[in-house]
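Narrative of accomplishments. A recurring question from our advisory board has been how the design workflow behaves on a single, concrete structure rather than in aggregate. To address it, we present the structure tokens for one chain from the evaluation set, followed by the sequence designed for it. No filtering or post-editing was applied between the two.
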């Protein structure tokens, strides 16, 4: 029985790989850091601030067909976020480098000849591995983001997609300060 399960698993994996479609992508990212400071400086005891940054991403992934129109797409991408901070004068420039591992479930709908509309959703594991300022010591490096979006596939060779992700974990190392990351991504992919 164990041999049968092992052979069945190998055959299932081989079929999934045979029907997988590899892609590479480049994109633009807009990132927000929602910072909430618990303090007694105002009547509510809370100060909230949101900083915005620009960046770009580059990545690769596979789409495994689960059923007609239904795909599982794991991937890996590099994300660079850079911008000027406005709330803390001594730390004016913020630069962060992330490695992200998304795992999205998507569904394709034929829209026109050679064009498919799709929606996707799923988690993304995100690891901050480098930063250009001392702010790094105030942030946790690992986060899970939940997100989704939509896009278009053209003649099964190009894919244009837009998505939004929100960080589920508090990325701050301080008790009085919470930090949640969120990102808007727009990317163009080439499908092999």
């Amino acid at each position: 029985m164990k041999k049968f399960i092992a052979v069945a698993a190998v055959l299932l994996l081989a079929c999934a790989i045979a029907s997988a479609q590899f892609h590479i992508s480049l994109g633009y990212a807009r990132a927000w850091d929602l910072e909430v400071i618990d303090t007694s400086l105002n009547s509510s005891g809370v100060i909230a601030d949101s900083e915005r940054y620009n960046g770009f991403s580059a990545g690769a992934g596979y789409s495994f067909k689960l059923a007609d129109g239904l795909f599982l797409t794991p991937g890996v991408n590099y994300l660079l976020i850079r911008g000027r901070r406005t709330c803390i004068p001594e730390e004016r420039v913020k630069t962060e480098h992330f490695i992200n591992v998304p795992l999205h479930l998507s569904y394709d709908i034929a829209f026109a000849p050679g064009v498919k509309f799709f929606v996707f959703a799923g988690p993304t594991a995100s690891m901050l591995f480098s930063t250009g300022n001392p702010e790094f010591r105030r942030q946790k490096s690992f986060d899970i983001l939940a997100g989704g979006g939509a896009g278009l596939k053209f003649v099964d060779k190009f894919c244009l997609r837009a998505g939004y992700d929100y960080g589920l974990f508090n990325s701050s190392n301080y008790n009085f300060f919470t930090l949640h990351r969120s990102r808007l991504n727009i990317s163009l992919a080439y499908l092999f």
